[in-house]
Amino acid sequence: xxxxxVIEGVDGAGKNTLARRLVxxxxxxxxxIARIGFPRYDRSVHADLAAEALHGEHGDTxxxxxxxxxxxxxxxxxxxDEIRKLLSHNDVVLLDRYVASNAAYTAARLEQTADGGAVExxxxxxxxRFGVPIPDIQILLDVPVALAAERAAARExxxxxxxxxxxxRDGSLQSRTSAVYGALAAANWVSPWHVVTADVDPDRLAxxxxxxxxxxxxxxx
Length: 221
Prior knowledge:
Number of helices: 10
Structural class: alpha/beta
Radius of gyration: 17 Å
CATH class: Alpha Beta
Oligomer: single chain
Enzyme class: transferase
Organism: Rhodococcoides yunnanense
Family: Belongs to the thymidylate kinase family.
Pfam families: Thymidylate_kin (PF02223)
Distance between the termini: 30 Å
CATH superfamily: P-loop containing nucleotide triphosphate hydrolases
Keywords: ATP-binding, Kinase, Nucleotide biosynthesis, Nucleotide-binding, Transferase
C-alpha cells in the first residue's frame, strides 16, 4: 500500500509547482507516483457545479457556505475508489488539496476558528461518513497571503481560461483561510502535518517524506 500525501495552502500559494517538483524528485528515485488535483474539474460534475457557482452561475448556490462545502466533499467521495486503487499500485499518491481545504475555507467563510463547528462537521462528513482515506502526511505550503494573491492575479493575466473565482478574489477570505490552515497544522488535525515555505527544497522534502537519503538536487527550480 502506498503513502498518501496532501499539499494544502491558499489560492496562489504554489501548490501545483511544488507537486510537480516533488513528483520529479520521487520519479528520479525510481518510485511509482500518482497525482490527483482537487477539485477534479472536467472530471466531476460536483466540482464543475462548484466552479460554475463561484463564477456566478446556479443562482445563490455560491452564497451558501454549506452547499459549496457539500459539492467539494461529494467530489472527493466519488474519488474514493480511485484513490484506493492508486494507493494499491503506487509508492506515493500525491493530492493537490484535500479535506483540510474544505475545512479551512468553510470555517473561514463562517468566520470560525479551527476548533469551531465547521471543521468538525467537515471531518465527520468526509472521513467518517464518506470514508475518504486519511492522509499519511499533510503538507502546508505557508506563503504570505499577499504573495499568493499576486501569483493568482498573474496567473489570470497569463491565461484567459484561469479567471479567478469568488474565493480567489476575496483577500479577506484568503487571510482567514490561511489562519485556519495554520491552526490545523499546529494541531496535527486528523494526521501529521509538515509546514514548508515558498523556498522549500523539493528534493530534501521528497526525501524527508519517504525517508530516503537526500542526494544532489535533481529538480529544476
